[in-house]
Amino acid sequence: MNRLSAVERALREAAPHEIFDVIRSVIERRHDARAVDLLLVDYAMTRLQPVGVLPHTRSPVPVYDSAPGRAFGAQEPLCVYDRSDSMVTVYLPVSVRGDRLGILSVTLQVEEGGELAADILEELQEYADALAHEVVVAERDTDLFLQARRAERLTLAAEMQWQLLPGRSCTRPEYSLGAQLEPAYAIFGDCFDWSASADDLYVTVSNGMGEGIDAALLTNLAVNALRNARRAGLSLSDQAHLADQAVYGQHRGEQYLSTLLFRFHLPTGDVEIIDAGSPRVWRVREGVVEPIELEAQMPLGMFEDTAYVPQRFRVEPGDRLLFISDGVYDALSPAGEKYSLRALAASMRSTRLLPAPQVPRVMLQELLGHRGSGPAADDSLVMCLDWHGRSTTHDR
C-alpha cells in the first residue's frame, strides 16, 4: 500500500502531460521493463492509439483481432508470451468506474519457460488503475490524451458533442451502461447524458434537429439546461419544463430537441420516464425483444410552456434496455431500403451475451454494414443499460 501511495502521490505532483512518463519510469525501474506503452481507444472505438508527442507516435492497433483489443474487450489483463526470447507482454485495462479508456502495455523478461508472477500482475494492474484516474483529471489541463484518441480530425460540431458527454460507459453494482455515437468524427445532434446519486440514476438520450454546429449548439443548450435543473434538485417533469423553456426562449419553436428523460430508483427498479420525441426504448427480458410503448409528448422547445407528465414502469434484474435514435431505425441502404425493425431486433439478440459497454459499438457496426461506407444522412446513437438491481445487503 505504501508503494502504491507513493506512485499515486508522484502522479498527482506531475505535470498533466507527464503522468504517463511517471508510470513508465516507475515500471521500468521496478521491473526492468523493456517497453511500456499507453494505448487509448479512439472515438469510433475501433482502434487503440499510442500516446506520444504528435506526429511521432507508433501505428494504431485494431480493437478487433489483436491481443490488446482482446484485453480491452474483456477488461481483464492478458499475458502474451514470446518463449523464444523469454519475454512476456502484459496488456492491462485502463478504466475508471467502468469507463474504458484504453490499455497499458508492459513488456518484461521472464525466466525460460516461466510465467509472470501473480503479485507482479496485480501490481501492474494497480498502476494501470492509478493512471486511469489521473488521465481523466489531466484532460482538463492538457490536450495530449485527447489528441492521442483521434484517428482522424474531428469536425467542430463533433468536438463540441464529445466534450459534452459524461463518458462512454459506467458501472455500479445496480447497473452497467454503455453508449456510442456515429459517425464518431462527424456527429452533430445526437447526445446522451447520465448522472447517479445514492438512490437515483438519471439518463437522457437526445436527438437534436439540424446539422453541423447549429445542431451541436442546440444540444449543448438543452443538455446544460437539463443539468442545471437536475442539479437544483428539481423533479423530472420540472427538468423537462426548464429545458423546454430554455430552448423555446432561444429559438421560438424554430428549432427543438427530441429527448427521452429517465429517473431510475436504484433500490426498487421503479422508473420515471418522459418521452419528448423520437428516440425509442427497447427491452430484452429473458431473451424476448420488445419495444416499450410510451405516450409521446412534445419535443423540448417546440411550443411555449409545455407541461410534461412522467410515465412509469419497472425494470427487473436481468433486464436490458436499449435506447436508440432515429438515425439507426431510419437508416437507408445504398438502394434506399430502410433498416428494418426485424434487423434491429436481430442485432439486439445477437449481442445479448456481450456486456453493456460493448453492445452499442457492435450494433452500430452492423448498421454500417446495412448503410454502406458513404456519408451518413443522420447521426446515430445506441445506449445499452443492463439492470442488475440492488441486493438487500447493498451498502450505500
UniProtKB/TrEMBL annotation:
Superkingdom per UniProt: Bacteria
Signal peptide: none
Record-annotated PPM-type phosphatase domain positions: 174-387
Keywords in alphabetical order: Hydrolase
SUPFAM superfamilies: PP2C-like
Organism: Streptomyces durocortorensis
Protein name in UniProt: Serine/threonine-protein phosphatase
InterPro entries per the UniProt record, alphabetical: Bact_Sigma-Reg, PPM-type-like_dom_sf, PPM-type_phosphatase-like_dom
